[in-house]
Amino acid sequence: MGPTSTTAGDEPRAETRSEPNDPEPNDSEPNEPESALETARRQLQHAADHLDIDPNVVERLKHPKRVHEVTVPIEREDGDVAVYTGYRAQHDSVRGPYKGGLRYHPDVTREECVGLGMWMTWKCAVMDIPFGGAKGGIAVNPKDLTDEETERLTRRFTDEIRAVIGPTTDIPAPDMGTDPQTMAWLMDAYSMQEGETIPGVVTGKPPVVGGSEGRDEAPGRSVAIVAREAVDYYGKAIGETSVAVQGFGSVGANAATLLDDWGANVVAVSDVTGGVYDPDGLDTRAIPSHREEPEAVMTHEAPGTVTNDALLELDVDVVIPAAIGNVLTADNADDVAADIVIEGANGPTTSAASEVFAERDVPVIPDILANAGGVTVSYFEWLQDINRRAWSLDRVNDELETEMLDAWGDVRDEFEARDVTWRDAAYIVALSRIAEAHEARGLWP
Ligand code: GLU
């Protein structure tokens, strides 16, 4: 189908995060959208069914090791005190310290952090980097806070979780609603309390305080690399490939511009306000990214516009949902016309939609592989921090390319050997490594 114009009253998909529009079977609350934890548990069980692993290890992996819940009070500019709730869910550390982002978003819950933390465990294992999985965040709309209030919130939150994070225990990073500046405040707050500068406590910092060159761009770069490999695998030249990208934040904007640089025809991109469309290909570098000018995609002159819903159904070769979770559901999976789906966001496809894509034979390259460039360059950053030696941008990008191609190859081998979906193949790679580590270490005591 073709694009449609954004009309008044159209609710952009990117704003409908908690809309109960997902009829995914859910025994307890049939009208609720599937939670990240439910999706993560189903995906785990699905992959485990293909593997000869101890069911006790699978059962253990359905639960987090521990979840920290803290109260974060801050003084607002007007002198009032606002009280927020923060979380850090630590899922599994059998392969190394907990690793994962911190999210500032009104919908952050304990359960969401656990589900997202599980995905980090698989993501690190599929990339074969020596970290476990965690996720955390604060239930807050960062748009409601001034920069000073956000700084105060971050410093107080850091203090509340200080005992459970650290460069060898749990290493946070940016996620939705947080950025390199947030990580710099976290690093400073932690270091001031510890009495020494400890850059390795957090990744995704600005390079001037121990951040890695290329970290910011890395999740989008890995999405672009995986898209390029998938397109090649299915026998198409990148120069003849049309692409639609939902979301123009760090992941979407970097993926879109790199694919554009490599010759793909990026016909549509969107942010929370809607999208722009050009069947001849957009000049993606001319569109302001979220960092340059938030929510400004629609200010770009283009022949057409497209809603966030319609973008996912465009007749393109590759569609990349790179905004938020649960946008591909049983409601629209049949209408997705793209030949390949590359998951840029974490958890954009519900379990019911995954089944539809499997029946339709539409390859869905999963988030835990596609956007894993973020945590991979986080690992590079952590190595640089420990060694007190920075790498050049070229070195970071070269090593990222190697790691992505290795992981892509491991997943492709399972995909071909077992005749499963790409998601199951990625889970099989990850789960085998985690289960092997659990079996080698055994249960304490
Ligand atoms: N938040 C990112 C993710 O979901 C990066 C996590 C990290 O670098 O630790 O993968």
Q: How is this structure best described in words?
A:
The protein folds into two domains: 1-24 and 214-419, 3-Layer(aba) Sandwich (Rossmann fold), CATH 3.40.50.720; 63-201, Leucine Dehydrogenase, chain A, domain 1 (Rossmann fold), CATH 3.40.50. The chain is α/β, with parallel strands linked by helices and 445 residues long. The chain is built from 13 helices and twelve strands. The strands form two sheets. The protein has a seven-stranded mixed β-sheet with strand order 9-8-7-6-10-11-12. The protein has a five-stranded mixed β-sheet with strand order 1-2-4-3-5. The protein binds glutamic acid. The site of glutamic acid (GLU) has 13 residues, from strand 3 and helix 11. The site of glutamic acid has 13 residues, from strand 3 and helix 11.
Briefly summarize what is shown:
This protein has 445 residues and is α/β, with parallel strands linked by helices. It contains 13 helices and twelve strands.
Essential attributes:
alpha/beta, seven-stranded mixed β-sheet, Rossmann fold, five-stranded mixed β-sheet, 445 residues, disordered N terminus, 2 domains
Q: Please outline the major beta sheet.
A: 7 strands, mixed
Counting copies of identical and different chains, the oligomeric state is: single chain
Strand order of the largest sheet: 9-8-7-6-10-11-12
CATH domain class of the largest domain: Alpha Beta
Q: Supply Rg.
A: 21 Å
* Helix-strand pattern: HHEEEHEHEHHEHEEEHEEHEHHHH
Identify the CATH architecture of the largest domain: 3-Layer(aba) Sandwich
Termini gap: 59 Å
Query: What is the CATH topology classification name of the largest domain?
Result: Rossmann fold
Q: How many extended strands?
A: 12
Low-confidence stretches: 1-31
Q: What's the rounded overall pLDDT mean? A: 92
Query: What's the number of structural domains?
Result: 2
